[in-house]
Give the backbone structure.
Amino acid sequence: MMPANRVDRCVCHFVMFKDMLPLIDRLRQSGVDDEHTILDHLRTKTKCTTGCALCEPYIRQMIRTGQTQFVPLSFGHE
């Protein structure tokens, strides 16, 4: 079961991951399928990953899988 505190957006720019899926789909339909190129397009359009950048691993996973909600990553801080 997913915890209530799922990661589902870029908190710096208030962009929901699910709202980026149509842009990813359009890029793929136009022949863009490289993760880095897609991420660059998302960065330009939404500014995601340009603040604290903590959303980047989640956005990369979303590009790979289409998943839009994630269990928060642990960064080893205690």
